[in-house]
Specification:
There is one protein chain. The protein has 331 residues and is α/β, with parallel strands linked by helices. The protein is built from 10 helices and 12 strands. A 7-stranded mixed β-sheet has the order 3-2-1-4-5-12-11, sandwiched between helices. A 3-stranded antiparallel β-sheet has the order 6-7-10, with helices on one face. A two-stranded antiparallel ribbon has the order 8-9. The longest helix is centred in the last third of the chain and has 17 residues. The chain is globular, with a radius of gyration of 20 Å. It binds N,N,N-trimethyl-histidine (AVJ). N,N,N-trimethyl-histidine binds next to strand 10.
Length: 331
């Protein structure tokens, strides 16, 4: 997404456009050329992918969303106090915004809400729900890939900026990338900035495997939809039935990985290239890192934040962590 396309929805007229001659394809071809084939995780979230992800959140096996929401509800007054009055709320990767709605309703005099999402359809739906629940709150939707630089300086004034990053999306990045992202968030919120981060905590491999390979098969559809998308958008010829979803827990890196496994030996064409798959060979599509609260605090401290608050469920499956900008910085 180019600089000029960001903030386009502010004007409220034209729908944001996805770039057609996408740099995505170059990245896809590079990723499929690696010894361990992979695909960019963010491509899971097209319109169908975002819808399927919302359905994953409703499954019994995916404890993440439910648990985070219960922590938020249990601690709302405390969390709102931490955010302080007059905040402008930024949410990278906003999604359906149901958690945010609860947060925003509890805040004292919030100034605006800026959801960022790579998928314009998500922003349109977000605008619709927000106009019903919080019609007076100014909405500043930003259509952008939040992992790339975006123009946060153009956001309106507020007492302070609060960055809300729930859902444990931070876990989808390698630890060093996660730290770089947290540093970018710190720059986006400034010296008076605060951040509320959702962090999924370490737990048994069995629980994690069930959460990322639910018995209803929604996660499998979510993962396979990536190939459907490549067929549609990049004229690839993946035989969807010849791949299956797998979730593997890597105990040393503390992360659950999603892969698409080739059921047989096959060739796939995309972007004028041909890729060979051995039977059983996989494409790595997502990693979800699991942290201890201390480990995440250390990452954030290295990114210009100081740890401030920790809210958890009684079983310690998930944490909401509150940070404020570090007052003291290493030269
Ligand atoms: C959207 C990053 C929170 O990693 O748990 C859910 C995505 N993938 N099931 C996660 C996901 C498979 C999810 N996040």
């Amino acid at each position: 997404m180019s600089d000029d396309e960001e903030l386009q929805m502010e004007a409220g007229s034209a729908a944001p456009v996805e770039s057609i001659d996408s740099p995505d394809l170059a990245e896809i071809l590079r990723d499929l050329s690696r010894p361990q084939k992979r695909l960019p995780t963010r491509l899971l979230y097209d319109e169908e992918g975002s819808r399927l992800f919302e359905r994953i959140c409703e499954t019994g096996d995916y404890y993440v969303t439910r648990t985070e929401l219960s922590i938020l509800r249990e601690n709302l007054p405390d969390i709102a106090a931490f955010a302080g009055p007059g905040a402008g709320v930024i949410e990278p990767g906003a999604g359906c915004g149901c958690k945010t709605r609860e947060l925003l309703s509890a805040l004292e005099d919030p100034r605006w809400y800026a959801p960022l999402d790579i998928d314009p359809s998500v922003l349109w739906r977000c605008r619709q729900t927000m106009s019903q629940v919080l019609p007076r709150l100014p909405l500043v939707p930003v259509c952008a890939d939040f992992t790339r630089p975006w123009r946060y300086a153009r956001l309106p004034l507020a007492e302070r900026r609060l960055l809300f990053f729930p859902g444990s999306t931070i876990g989808n990045f390698e630890p060093h990338e996660a730290q770089a992202l947290l540093r970018q968030f710190q720059q986006a919120t400034g010296a008076s900035g605060r951040m509320i981060l959702g962090v999924d905590l370490r737990k048994s491999a069995a629980t994690l495997r069930r959460a990322y390979d639910d018995s209803e098969g929604i996660t499998a559809r979510f993962n396979l939809n990536l190939l459907v998308r490549l067929n549609r958008e990049h004229a690839a010829d993946f035989d969807i039935a010849a791949f299956e979803h797998v979730a593997v827990y890597d105990k040393t890196r503390h992360r659950i990985e999603m892969h698409l496994r080739s059921r047989r030996e096959q060739q796939v064409r995309i972007g004028g290239r041909s890729f060979r798959f051995a039977a059983g060979e996989t494409i790595h599509t997502e990693s979800s890192h699991k942290y201890l609260p201390d480990g995440m605090a250390q990452l954030a401290v290295g990114a210009g934040w100081q740890a401030w608050k920790l809210w958890m469920d009684p079983q310690r499956r998930f944490a909401l962590m509150g940070f404020e900008a570090a007052r003291w910085r290493q030269p």
